[in-house]
Structure formats: structure tokens, C-alpha cells
Amino acid sequence: MINFDIFDKYNYPYPYMSTDSCFSEQDLNNLINEFPDVSNGNLVMGGRRQKDASSLNQWLDTAPTWKRFYSFLNTKDRFDQVTAQYAEELKKWQSILNPESGPETDSFLHIDWSEAGDGYVREIHRDTDPRIWNFIIFFNDKDWDGGDFIIHTSDKLKIFPRQLFNQELPIHKTIEAKKNRAVFFLSTPNSYHSVSMQSATKTPRKFIYGAYTMKNNKDVFRKRYNI
């Protein structure tokens, strides 16, 4: 369903890959048509509404293309394919993953469906300790100001707190929302990113965030410093 061979791949400032053609045109149109109504979802992070994950399986039965996408990623083979390409980085940060790791044992696939409007912003942060591999995929073209996904470098940091509220980091790359654009990245301790303040929204920013995630809130890395 996704051909990762067509992605542009980068190793700095942390391993990530991106494409403007994540899905085929037919799959993309189906995913857009099946995108859930989150207008009554919980308001978080200033201006973002999310689908309630508690009814995920029931909803997937009504959204066949989304169910196929979820099933595409939620396998041991896909998990192994993804993690194998990051073997050096996983070793560098002393990952606790082992040959038996995967969605059927010690991890799971998290996805949330979201819309963002005026006021949505994210501080410079890395994702939570149990996250292994994260992604964001956009489902409409930019019709607002700001709301950009920003990748930061952190070469001068010795330790890597999860959030940086009072500290700036250099901007490595700014990625604007675009229909069918996707960014996937290894959730290393230095995988800092942010979202600029969204405003003047004419159409909400539709996107999904997902991640392979360790169960039981386990930290995937033993090393979270650069000393």
C-alpha cells in the first residue's frame, strides 16, 4: 500500500524519510472520503481535534481503506522491515528491541486522526519514550498560515529532555502540509520537531499521526544522552 522505496531518505539530524506521493491516487481518494469526522473530538494542543481511539476497531470496520492501511503496518514483517534499516541507530541509543519484538509481543501500532485549526501549535519536543518509529501524513493542501512541521538539530545538547519550552534549537527543515505528503522518522532521543502556530485557517489541516510504540509505557532506549 506504501512503497517505501520511493521515499527520500536522510540520516541527519536524525533518520527520517519523506515523500509527496505516499499513496496511489485511488487509495488517497478513498482515505480522504473515509476520513472520520473529528469535529466533536477532544480539543488538544491549542486547536487540534482527534478521533477517540476507544472505538477504533468498530470504526475501522466501516472504513475499508483505512482498515487495509492499518493492517499493512500492523504486522511483524512490516515492523521487522522498518527496524532493520535503523540497526545502527538502534544500537547507538541502546534500544531494548529484540528479535521477538513486534505488534504481537511487546509493541503496538498507534494512529490518531486529527484536524487542526487556529491556535494549533507544538513546542520543540521529541515524542514520548515508548515511541519507536513515528509518522505524519497530510490529507489536504495548505489553506492556512503556519501549521508547518519543523525538524530541528540538537548538536550542542548533551541530554535530551522531552520538551523544550524556553530554549530554541536550529531549524534544519520546514515541511509544509500538502495532500499525500508523508514524513516517517525514527523516534531517537534527539528527534526534535515542532509545529509553528496555525492561523487564518480556511480549511482545517487534516492529518494522521502514528507510531510503533512499546507496551506498558517502556522506554525503547537505554541511552538518552550525548556525553
Overall description:
By secondary structure, the protein is an alpha+beta fold. The protein has a single domain, classed as q2cbj1_9rhob like domain (Jelly Rolls), CATH 2.60.120.620. Helices cover 17% and strands 28% of the residues. The chain contains five helices and 13 strands. The protein starts with 7 loop residues before the first strand and ends in a 13-residue tail after the last strand.
Keywords:
single chain, 227 residues, alpha+beta, Jelly Rolls, 8-stranded antiparallel sheet, 5-stranded antiparallel sheet, 5 helices, globular
Helix residue percentage = 10-25%
Overall number of structural domains? 1
**Which spans have pLDDT < 50 for at least 5 consecutive residues?**
none
**What's the end-to-end separation, in Å?**
41 Å
Please tell me what the overall shape is: globular
Count the strands? Answer: 13
Question: Mean pLDDT score, rounded?
Answer: 96
Strand proportion, as a percent range, falls in 25-35%
Biggest sheet, open or closed, and with what strands and sense?
8 strands, antiparallel
The sequence of SSEs as H and E is EEHEEHHHHEEEEEEEEE
- Sheet with the most strands: spatial strand order: 1-2-11-7-13-5-4-3
CATH topology description: Jelly Rolls
What is the name of the CATH class? Mainly Beta
Radius of gyration: 17 Å
User: What structural class do you assign from the helix and strand content?
Assistant: alpha+beta
CATH homologous superfamily?
q2cbj1_9rhob like domain
Tally of alpha and pi helices: 5
CATH architecture: Sandwich
